[in-house]
Structures are given as C-alpha cells and as structure tokens.
Model the fold of this input.
Amino acid sequence: MTDNHPIWQVSAASTALRREPGHTAALDTELLHGEQFRVLEEQGRWVRGIALLDGYEGWAEKLSFSSDVFEPTHRVTALRSYRFSQPDLKSAPLNLISMNALVQCETAREGRFLQDARGGWLFADHVQPVDTCADDYVAVAEKFMGAPYYWGGRTSLGLDCSALVQNAMAQICVKVPRDSGPQRTFFAREPGSVLFDTSENDQSRNVGEWQDLSLQRGDLVFWSGHVVIMVDGENIVHANATHMAVTRNNLKEFADKIRESDGDVVSVCRPRVADV
Done:
C-alpha cells in the first residue's frame, strides 16, 4: 500500500462498510467512531478503502469521515454513550457512540465531563485511557445480553457473533480478527490453546468428542461460521440468528438444536489472552 492514499477517521457514531457504493449493498462490517480508514477511491458520496483495525475493504459514506485525524487517548467502555454538545446532561447530544469507539480527550474537563478533540463532551465514567484493560472479556460480552443480532454489525444496537468476541477482547486490550474463521485460526496459534479440532490439519479428535471436554469460563466454541463464549462449564453467551439477539444458552442444547442446519462443533479453544 502506497503512502499517497490518505487516512481518514470516522467522525460519525459509526458507519457501514458495504461491498458496493449504495445503501442497499451488502453490509460486511461497521466502523466505529474514531477508527481509521485508508481511502483508496472516491465515487460521488462514497469512498472505498481499508479499515486499519482489521483490514476489511469496502465502501462507506464520505460524510461519515473527517480528514482531520486525532490520535485516540480514550476508549468507550460503556455499551453506548452520548457525546453532548455541552458539559451538561441536558444539552443536545451530538451523537451516540458505542463501546470501543475511540476519542482524544486532552483538551478540557468540566465536572463529570471530558471534552474530546472534535468538540463533544463525554461522561468521564464511560471512557478509559486506551491502555487501561478490563480483566474479564466474558463479563464484557455479557453486557450485550439482549442486543439485536445484526449481520455485519459491531455495536450494541446490533452485532453478530464474531463482533461480540472482537468487542469483548478489545476491552481487555487484545486485538483479534473480525470474522469467526480467522478468530479460530488466531486463537489456535498458541501451543496448548486448542482443546478440540476437526480440521483437515488435525484429525486426532472425532466429531462429537467435544462433549467430553471439561469446559470453563472464557473458552471459545466454534462451528463453521459461528462462535460462542463459555460463561461457565455448560452455558454460552453469543449473538445468534436463532434468537436474533445476544442470548445465554446451554451449549449442548444449542448444539443439538442447530446440528441439522449448521453441523457440529468444529473447534474449541482456550484463549491464552496474556500471550496474544
């Protein structure tokens, strides 16, 4: 990638990254407030480029970006937080940004509010310095309970299974791929992290043997195209199209329910998050 392609920053609350330049084109993912985008091409009100966070390429609306790029100092830790026009909860909001949105807050503080570099005021308890890490990604994922399922979405207003994992991991300062397949590969690269796998590269386990594992909180269970997070030895939290929401379910009951349509579990990983 040559250096003459400019980098812009999302100034909207979030923006859709689509396969083609049009509102009805397929949604692949979303970019959050403060994330950066390398612009490759402009076409009317649309721009094609690459998300610097995870390498996704697509089309987004030009009005969602600013060419003024600020280095983020803080990350949103609440599910959603208003950027107010004044340091006053009764003032008009500028927009509503989501968990893992990025802001630069070095200009001013008034009472309980921090001002960001674009002039918005954020409730200070809803943000943390970018190098401050949570210690339990499962607890982060559980905050999304009840959020609608939305293919390609990355916010609590709608997200998919791999976005739930990506969001939760970001809060503990671990950067992971956007999609479940690459996530499976990412977590499997650490020796000893794979508890079960039926890929062509590992035929040491048979389909269904995953049910004999002693699973624990934080384990990731993968199907082809789906990923869930264990909340304890038996139950999962996941964004799923079965319930069209983020739900808590019994793992084995859910696996039985979707086996005919989605096949069986293909991999189980125990992320060594201290090492990734």
Summary: The chain has three domains: 7-66, 81-129, 137-269. The radius of gyration is 20 Å. The longest helix spans residues 251-262.
